[in-house]
Amino acid sequence: GHPLVVAVDGPSGSGKSSVSKAAARALRLAYLDTGAMYRALTWYCLDRGIDLKDAAAVENAAEELPLEQSTSPDAEFVKVGGVDVTEAIREPRISENVSAVATTLGARTELIRRQREQIEKHRNRMVVEGRDITTVVAPRAEVRLLLTASEEARLRRRGVQLGGTQSKEQLAQQVLERDKKDSTVVNFTRAADGVVTLDSSDLDFRQTVDAVLDIVHRVL
Ligand code: C5P
Q: Is the complex ipTM higher than 0.90?
């Protein structure tokens, strides 16, 4: 088929992952969750006892990271050195430390290289989701989207995702703190030139997926 890279960026709790996955399924495209790569690297660093403030060590860990990741929107798995970490990388200890890893520029360079390699391997037919996909990883993607949502909507969604076990204050602390740390190296709060903003605050899941598919079909 024709090249069709759909780049989706957005803050945490914007619904990026589930929406991107559903769009990939509908469009019969491969799917890459780049956040899972930063999470897998964080898991690996913690497992190895690597000091996250040691940029050279984190960069080195990124280069040797033995990562296997599903690129099918129907079967999510992430493995590091043969260990299934699909669930472990969603734990709070990872969410709390992932920004430290993701703001290490040498580590980003390596993961960005791997992301571009994946896009190429899938012959440019892929939905790629993260924070810097529209701007850095795939600035020439056929479709570039910034998925946003109000702070209120994002906190509500993340709360539901975590099973309603966290207080409002805990959620705000976790979600907003991480976005703040991440935004020191990647800008996912404002759309770059040529990037379409889709605000999902008042849309449900199905409506958001349909809006994404409409945007894709407009450029096809
Ligand atoms: O999307 P998710 O919340 O799983 O991403 C986890 C973390 O990975 C983000 O908080 C950010 O630190 C990092 N990340 C990034 N660039 C991307 C995707 C994720 O820095 N393209």
A: yes
Q: How far is the CA of 7 from the centre of ligand 1 (A)?
A: 14
Q: In the numeric block, which tokens belong to residue 62?
A: 């990124």
Strand, helix or coil for residue 108: helix
Give per-residue pLDDT as tens, 90-107.
999 999 999 999 999 999
For residue 193, which amino acid is it?
D
Quote the CA–CA distance of 188 and 134 in Å, as a whole number: 9
186 and 47 Cβ atoms separated by less than 8 Å: no
Backbone phi and psi for residue 54, each to the nearest 5 degrees, phi listed first = -90, 95
Does any ligand 1 atom lie closer than 6 A to the CB of residue 158?
no
Which letter does DSSP use for residue 133 in this model? Answer: I
Q: Which residues of the chain have pLDDT under 50?
A: none
How far is residue 105's CA from residue 107's CA, in Å, rounded to a whole number?
A: 5
Write out the two tokens for 201: 């605050």
What are φ and ψ of residue 200, in 5° steps?
-100, 10
* Cβ 15 under 6 angstroms from ligand 1: no
| Centre of ligand 1 from the C-alpha of residue 38, in Å | 6
